């Protein structure tokens, strides 16, 4: 059910009948305040301007042509020419009936697009740190939402698995294997990388060997390829544990690392040269872009191949965008990468468009996000100033959640407690990130995210269990209940119903903008409306059986919506807490 789309359709027909051009925008929005009705159509203003008529007069003739029989109970003009639409309680009731009977809470599937989502993207032989957490969590919520709507989603984990550092990593892995007789000493990736770098900087023979391995690896040497694969495998096996803990849908099959594009790079450089886009400059191959200026105000030079023949991060992203269009047949490509890489992406894509590698109809979208900050407003660090490892962070989340839920549920069996602590702890970390507008930096604060009040995971999870408890007490047969009709008589019933029926609209916004916080706010709002409804409209002690059943159905749709909504965010729910 998409009421906004339905009303947009009706209002634009009425606008055309009132003299507006066929492509007029009805601008139908959800109203911000109850006194403005459920929806507002704001498109009259700009149409009146182009028709040269007073807006209220145009609004009147739009209303005269607007047929909302069976949909709205009242339509009125407000302010300079806004149209306020009040939905008919019978229309709401009918649609709640349909939604509650459907597995998808009445959400339609879309005409599917192929959408590539680039997210997570950790680096090989490096620990995943908090910098990767936002990409992983927000990207996965976007993926789940797009899939729920029916799109064909391709997860692309653009792992940093290529580059000159692999010579040194191979040389060090070799050394480790010799010294530890094959025992794997890559458990601490960060330490491994540091030690490899130290040898490289201090031991000339080691460095010599490392440089040799880079060349051999590039040339496809069997031994080096095998050592490289080991490094990738060990890193990704560790990352997989984190994905599983985080309830993130990425698997090993989703890895499309930088190495995948490496064989394409010479062809890209040659082609860009041939197209006259790339030129030789001081030994390197460079694309000069008018769209970007350097500090002297001249077109910025983007290096795509270094003097020594090496390629760059940008060259890889050019090939990667091309590949996603040509080989994966993407209609849209979403990149969940932090905002510091914005200029990099814009340069790569400007080149991609100029070279005609990806047509304009296929969008390349940087769904950027800010940094994760500590309570002091500075980049999130450990007490000693190091970067916080994701695994340590999740361990702490678990421990805090365990203490919290144990205190609240002293009699709960141990295994249920552990499952609850997991849902709450991991949920809290994820939800804290998801619920903030992603474009800004965000402050990581344990106390806020684990609070049982406010827009937090524990609150939402608890709200869900409260709705379920109504059913436990009612002790009814769901199939029987579905046969009883919803009847809406109270304002609070109407408000809850209208909001529940906006689930699809919310999903569409998240799918379009990559903004899971819109879903969080929506679910929080639903939970709040349900509380008010529950307090003022007795369910189990309703005056009539009809009212009781109708209210139980509203509660059932609330439960479904919360569950499905939290699923799209990757937040686990529990039955009781
Ligand atoms: N591995 C990179 C990093 O850790 C992120 C890669 C993002 N994706 C891309 N197509 N550039 O910063």
UniProtKB/TrEMBL annotation:
Cross-referenced SUPFAM superfamilies: Anticodon-binding domain of a subclass of class I aminoacyl-tRNA synthetases, Arginyl-tRNA synthetase (ArgRS), N-terminal 'additional' domain, Nucleotidylyl transferase
EC number(s) from the headed UniProt entry: 6.1.1.19
A single MF term (Gene Ontology): arginine-tRNA ligase activity
CDD domains: Anticodon_Ia_Arg, ArgRS_core
Annotated Arginyl tRNA synthetase N-terminal domain residues: 1-87
Catalytic activity field: tRNA(Arg) + L-arginine + ATP = L-arginyl-tRNA(Arg) + AMP + diphosphate
Short motif ('HIGH' region): ranges: 122-132
Nucleotide-binding recorded as keyword: yes
Keyword Coiled coil: no
PROSITE patterns: AA_TRNA_LIGASE_I
Name of the featured protein: Arginine--tRNA ligase
Matching HAMAP family: Arg_tRNA_synth
Keyword tags: Aminoacyl-tRNA synthetase, ATP-binding, Cytoplasm, Ligase, Nucleotide-binding, Protein biosynthesis
Gene source species: Cedecea colo
Enzyme class, broadest EC rank: ligase
Location relative to the cell: Cytoplasm
Taxonomy of the source species: Bacteria, Pseudomonadati, Pseudomonadota, Gammaproteobacteria, Enterobacterales
Residues of the DALR anticodon binding domain: 460-577
One Pfam family from the record: DALR_1
Domain of life: Bacteria
Family that this chain belongs to: Belongs to the class-I aminoacyl-tRNA synthetase family.
Quaternary structure (record): Monomer.
InterPro entries (UniProt xref): aa-tRNA-synth_I_CS, Arg-tRNA-ligase, Arg-tRNA-synth_N, Arg-tRNA-synth_N_sf, ArgRS_core, DALR_anticod-bd, Rossmann-like_a/b/a_fold, tRNAsynth_Ia_anticodon-bd
């Amino acid at each position: 059910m998409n009421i906004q789309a339905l009303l947009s359709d009706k209002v634009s027909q009425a606008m055309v009948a009132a003299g507006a051009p066929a492509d007029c925008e009805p601008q139908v929005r959800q109203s911000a305040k109850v006194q403005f009705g459920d929806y507002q159509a704001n498109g009259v203003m700009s149409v009146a301007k182009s028709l040269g008529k007073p807006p209220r007069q145009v609004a009147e003739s739009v209303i005269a042509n607007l047929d909302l029989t069976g949909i709205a109970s009242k339509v009125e003009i407000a302010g300079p020419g806004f149209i306020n639409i009040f939905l008919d309680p019978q229309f709401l009731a009918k649609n709640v009936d349909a939604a509650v009977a459907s597995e998808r809470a009445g959400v339609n599937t879309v005409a599917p697009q192929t959408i590539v989502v680039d997210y997570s993207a950790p680096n090989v032989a490096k620990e995943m740190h908090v910098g990767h957490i936002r990409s992983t969590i927000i990207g996965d919520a976007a993926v789940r939402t797009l899939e729920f709507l029916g799109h064909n989603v391709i997860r692309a984990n653009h792992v940093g698995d290529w580059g000159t550092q692999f010579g040194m990593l191979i040389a060090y892995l070799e050394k480790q294997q010799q010294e530890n007789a094959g025992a794997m000493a890559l458990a601490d990736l960060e330490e491994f990388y540091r030690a490899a770098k130290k040898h490289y900087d201090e031991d000339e023979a080691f460095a010599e060997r490392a440089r040799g391995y880079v060349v051999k690896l590039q040339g496809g040497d069997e031994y080096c390829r095998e050592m490289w694969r080991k490094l990738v495998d060990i890193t990704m096996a560790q990352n997989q544990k984190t994905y599983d803990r985080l309830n993130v849908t990425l698997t090993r099959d989703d890895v499309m690392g930088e190495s995948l594009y490496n064989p394409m790079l010479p062809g890209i450089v040659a082609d860009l040269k041939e197209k006259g886009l790339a030129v030789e400059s001081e030994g390197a191959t460079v694309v000069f872009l008018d769209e970007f200026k350097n500090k002297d105000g001249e077109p910025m030079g983007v290096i795509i191949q270094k003097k020594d023949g090496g390629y760059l991060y940008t060259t890889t992203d050019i090939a990667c965008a091309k590949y996603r269009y040509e080989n994966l047949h993407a209609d849209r490509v979403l990149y969940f990468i932090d905002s510091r890489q914005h200029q990099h992406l814009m340069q790569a894509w400007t080149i991609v468009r100029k070279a005609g590698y990806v047509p304009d109809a296929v969008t390349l979208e940087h769904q950027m996000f800010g940094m994760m900050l500590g309570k002091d407003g500075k980049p999130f660090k450990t007490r000693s100033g190091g970067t916080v490892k994701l695994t340590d962070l999740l361990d702490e989340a678990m421990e805090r959640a365990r203490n919290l839920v144990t205190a609240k549920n002293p009699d709960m069996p141990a295994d249920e407690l552990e499952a609850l602590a997991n849902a709450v702890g991991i949920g809290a970390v994820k939800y804290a990130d998801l619920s903030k507008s992603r474009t800004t930096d965000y402050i990581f604060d344990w106390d806020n995210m684990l609070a049982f009040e406010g827009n937090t995971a524990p609150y939402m999870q608890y709200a869900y269990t409260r709705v379920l408890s109504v059913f436990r007490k009612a002790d009814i047969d769901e199939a029987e209940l579905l046969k009883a009709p919803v009847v809406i008589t109270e304002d609070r019933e109407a408000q809850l119903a209208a909001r529940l029926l906006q689930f699809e609209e919310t999903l569409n916004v998240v799918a379009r903008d990559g903004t899971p916080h819109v879903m969080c706010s929506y679910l929080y709002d639903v939970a709040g409306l349900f509380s008010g409804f529950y307090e003022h409209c007795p369910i189990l002690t309703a005056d009539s059986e009809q009212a009781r059943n109708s209210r139980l159905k509203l509660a059932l749709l609330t439960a479904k919506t919360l569950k499905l909504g939290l699923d799209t965010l990757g937040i686990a729910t529990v039955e009781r807490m």
